[in-house]
Amino acid sequence: MNCLFTHEIYDWPSWGRVFQSIEAWRALIRYIYQKEKLPYAEIESCTPGTNAVFKVGRFIVKIFAPKESGMDTDSDYDTERFGLERAGLLGIHAPRLIASGDVQDKYLFRYLVMDYIDGISFNKIEKTLSYEEKVAVGQKLRAITDKMNTPCARFNAIDVVDRAICSTRWTAFPAEFNRERLAYLEKLHMDESEKVFVHGDLNPDNILLDADKELYIIDFADAVLAPVSCELALTTSELFCFEKPFMQGFFGDYTAEDIAELCINGLLIHDYGAGILRASLGSADGISSLEILRERLIWLIKAEKEK
Fold first, then answer.
1. Spatial separation of the C-alpha atoms in residues 304 and 178, rounded to whole Å
2. Region 257-279: what's the mean pLDDT?
3. How many CB atoms lie within 10 A of CB 307?
4. Are 72 and 1 in contact (CB under 8 A)?
5. Measured between alpha carbons, how far is 210 from 216 in angstroms, rounded to an integer?
6. pLDDT in tens, 190-230
7. Which residue among 14, 208, 230, 237 is buried most deeply as judged by most CB within 10 Å?
8. Quick one: pLDDT at residue 1?
9. Which residue from 277, 240, 7, 73 is spatially nearest to 140, judged by alpha carbons?
10. DSSP letter, residue 215
11. How does pLDDT run across 238-264, given as a tens digit for each residue?
12. How far apart are the first and last CA of the chain?
């Protein structure tokens, strides 16, 4: 048959020029919906990400970048499918996986079709919430993470410690800090029993609130097996920005010292840890040791707690 997708993909910039184009994907999306016996409707754009994501009727279709883009998204596809299926089995509020598969067209395209969640992203609504509503959101998210961050079978080949050791994202930090960070990581031998399913990217775009203030989790492509501190550290620092009512709901009673230690343990091995710390602290300048990092985090958490 003639190719449904007619554009050229040969590197990441060429993917970037088409991945949000409705016209570029219309024929392929129509074919996927026919293949899966789903009701086709007008295609709508969604928040830009890495892959081609569109709303079609009451569903979301996500088409993963092919290998010609220069990215290996096979692991992302397998990981997200596993995460969605697991969330459904655990009763976690997340999109229901409707269909998954691939289409060998001009390129091999893998896809997921899932329910559309009619909600507002956390970053668009959190400023409108009252203190009490923020506490309730923290409590609801903790109930979700307690259910989600549990042991499971290995679903991808990522070793979070090895990835952290090889990461180039910490170059903005002083050399002496990086020497201490690597020494810390090299001594970190995690027992397999300490690893749980971690969503890995509970940022403000991946938490949706519906009209009843119920929370939904989306985008499981960054999930890994890791210590629970990876999830909790990112949630407190990037999602909550250490804001007191969210923290109170999520942790109950907490101390700045305990949260700082949690952040150090979790963010040093998190793939986004370096960027999150720089965003939280404003700069990596002068952070020449883990102790200085700990002191700055304690000061920041106390300042938020006392507001």
1. 28
2. 95
3. 7
4. no
5. 8
6. 777 789 999 999 999 999 999 888 999 999 999 999 999 99
7. 230
8. 59
9. 240
10. E
11. 999 999 999 999 999 999 999 999 999
12. 64
